[in-house]
Amino acid sequence: MSNIQVFKVLNNNVIIANHPQFQEVVVIGKGIGFNCKVGDDLPLASVEKMFILTNEHEQEQYKQLVPQVAEHLIEIVNEGILYIKEHSKVPLNEHIHIALTDHISFAIKRYDQGIVLQNPFIFETKEMYPEEYAMAEYVVELIRKGFNVDLEEDEIGFVALHIHSALTDQHVNEVKKQSQLVAYLVELVEKSMDYNIPRDSLDYSRFITHLRFALERVRSGKIEKEISSLDKLLYKEFPELYSLAWKMTKIMEQKLLKPVYPSEVSYLTVHLQRLYEKKTDADDKNNA
């Protein structure tokens, strides 16, 4: 069998299909779903320059993400990931489709709202990951042209970290230690908020991704001492969440035996606020 059979069309650029080897898969590619109908057969050769998500967990998260983002964004991010793949020496982790699409969608929303997150690690990122940074420049330029948004250099640094994450694998012992610390931090947040974050949700994936990047930044060993106006604003608007974020950074310091950037408190507070909004929505539904 050399065909995949269309099971569901999510949009013009994403379909769910039955694959001869991997069974149900998510297939991503420019225009792949255009004029497709359930039951149509597509030659595998036609997805040669597209991506097939075979991991079941990644499939489910991507299905959740697609309805939340602009269809044009899927097309542009796909083009960017193809560029990364063509300029990389190692395979890409499938999760980049979720992480990069979600991050860029959130960055565009922040841009529209006039919110700018400064990246205090931009110089370290350029120094440590020059190849990933160059790829990130290409991807951000695609976004600038495709959505007419003037994303700053800070975003290039963030995208570079996503690319680095998809291209590298840590030693199993380091991964285990990191996983244990992340699990401990998640448990702390859930107890503090009295909210169990659904493990199969996009929110959980976002939070875990942020914690993973935060720990990676801590291991760089450099400290950003400046407290920006964003820190002061978040402390004033969300004092309890800011306090929780501060406590989390102290735990990171104790477990990793390394200092933590003060700016990490702000980044954590932003993510905690998103989780708190989800908790509030869930409580409202349960009480309705």
UniProtKB/TrEMBL annotation:
Pfam families according to UniProt: CAT_RBD (PF03123), PRD (PF00874)
Keyword annotations from UniProtKB, A to Z: Repeat
A GO molecular-function annotation: RNA binding
Lineage: superkingdom: Bacteria
Transmembrane keyword on record: no
SUPFAM superfamilies linked to this entry: PTS-regulatory domain, PRD, SacY-like RNA-binding domain
InterPro entries in alphabetical order: BglG_antiterminators, CAT_RNA-bd_dom, CAT_RNA-bd_dom_sf, PRD, PRD_sf, Transcrpt_antitermin_CS
Annotated PRD domain residues: 68-173, 174-282
Record-level GO BP terms: positive regulation of DNA-templated transcription
Gene3D superfamilies on file: 1.20.58.1950, 1.20.890.100, CAT RNA-binding domain, PRD domain
Similarity field: Belongs to the transcriptional antiterminator BglG family. GlcT subfamily.
PANTHER family for this protein: CRYPTIC BETA-GLUCOSIDE BGL OPERON ANTITERMINATOR (PTHR30185), PROTEIN GLCT (PTHR30185:SF16)
Protein name: PtsGHI operon antiterminator
